[in-house]
Amino acid sequence: MPVRIVLVALLAAATAAAQSAFVIREQGARPFGGRITGNAAGGSLHCDHGYVEWQIPEGPRRTPLVMVHASSTKTWDTTFDGREGFRHIFLRRGFPVYLTDLPRTGRAGQGCAPVSYEPQPNHDQAWFTNWRLGLWLPGDPTPDFYPGVQFPQTERALNEFFRIQYPEFNAPENEQVETDALAALLDELGPSVLLTHSSTGIRGWITATKTTRVAAIVSYEPGDAVLPDSEMPSPIERIDGMKLPPGRAIPMADFLKLTKVPIQIVWGDYIPPTMEQVNVGPRLSLDNRRVNVQRAKLMVEAINRHGGDARNVMLPEIGIRGNTHFPMLDLNNVQIADLLSAFLAEKQLDRR
């Protein structure tokens, strides 16, 4: 049989397998963590809990994946153009999957403290640029996609992209409330792989200091890093002249807990490797991402210096190009999932 026909047949078989049905042995949803204010006699409120939904396939692997949303309820779910996202990909690969809404967000919106939300008039334009689909600068009537970007350039995909973000509360109090709840969930589930993204990157690092049930952390483009307070490097200069912290300082005793779990940090494409004068004003978010990469590199170096197992993966450097801030939703998300599967296999976290 000619090679071309063999390849076409293999591709067809792989496509059919990817679309085939699979059996879910168990599924459900419930709140987790939280606290109670007041009392039954004078009035009480159950609040600051998270919300988790889970699915467990037939013949599951031992270690579940806990997928933590950042500002988008779509992060781990169906892609912007309707393909399977990480939830379904890894269910097919035999992993129990737990999707969380953190306290005071999504289906866990009943908080113990008031919150406020102000609409951002230029939300569409700012986040198109910030999440690196391309550039949409003030005065431009339409966005300009980056050449080769792995985002589906359709009206439907863009419409979903602009609608999936929910308000995000990043005060230190919120981080503690959210990580308290996540630690409580992991204590209930047992050893689990924590998948974080963007602003939940810092939540993953803090959670690992509060529970011993983190089996590994894979963080996609985390918004911040942590470093031992006794070894803080110099500030990082941003293109606008601001001196930014190299990471979040935490006690050495807490930092060393991160050396006990394997960590992988993954970055997409179109992140400037150096300061570029053009990345000011509406393009400043691009230089912010460069700073975030520098923070991650400092954190990885510190973890490994203290005997840990961490790595920083720049996708373009390993030949995977065109990814946005949402690699798990991009057109090549199966390739990104394969990278995660390889990491889990290497760390022996894919056993049944």
Topology at a glance:
Elements: H1 3-18, E1 24-32, E2 35-39, E3 43-47, E4 50-57, E5 65-68, H2 86-92, E6 97-101, H3 123-130, E7 134-135, E8 144-145, H4 155-163, H5 172-189, E9 192-197, H6 200-207, E10 214-220, E11 226-228, E12 236-237, E13 243-244, E14 248-250, H7 252-255, E15 263-267, H8 284-305, E16 310-314, H9 333-346
Parallel strand pairs: 5-6, 5-9, 9-10, 10-15, 11-14, 15-16
Antiparallel strand pairs: 1-4, 2-3, 4-6, 7-8, 12-13
Characterization of the model:
- This protein is 30% helix and 21% strand.
- The protein has 352 residues and is α/β, with parallel strands linked by helices.
- It has one domain (24-346): Alpha/Beta hydrolase fold, catalytic domain (Rossmann fold).
- An eight-stranded mixed beta sheet has the order 1-4-6-5-9-10-15-16, with helices on both faces. It has a two-stranded antiparallel sheet with strand order 2-3.
- A hairpin with a 3-residue loop joins strand 2 (35-39) and strand 3.
- Helix 5 (172-189) crosses helix 6 (200-207).
- 39% of the residues are buried.
Please sum up the structure shown.
The protein has helices spanning 3-18, 86-92, 123-130, 155-163, 172-189, 200-207, 252-255, 284-305, 333-346; strands at 24-32, 35-39, 43-47, 50-57, 65-68, 97-101, 134-135, 144-145, 192-197, 214-220, 226-228, 236-237, 243-244, 248-250, 263-267, 310-314. The chain is α/β, with parallel strands linked by helices and 352 residues long.
Helix/sheet category:
alpha/beta
Strand order in the sheet with the most strands: 1-4-6-5-9-10-15-16
- The radius of gyration is 21 Å
The CATH H-level superfamily is: Alpha/Beta hydrolase fold, catalytic domain
Q: Count up the helices.
A: 9
Helix/strand order, N-terminal first: HEEEEEHEHEEHHEHEEEEEHEHEH
Q: What's the end-to-end separation, in Å?
A: 37 Å
> Do you know the CATH architecture?
3-Layer(aba) Sandwich
**What is the number of E strands?**
16
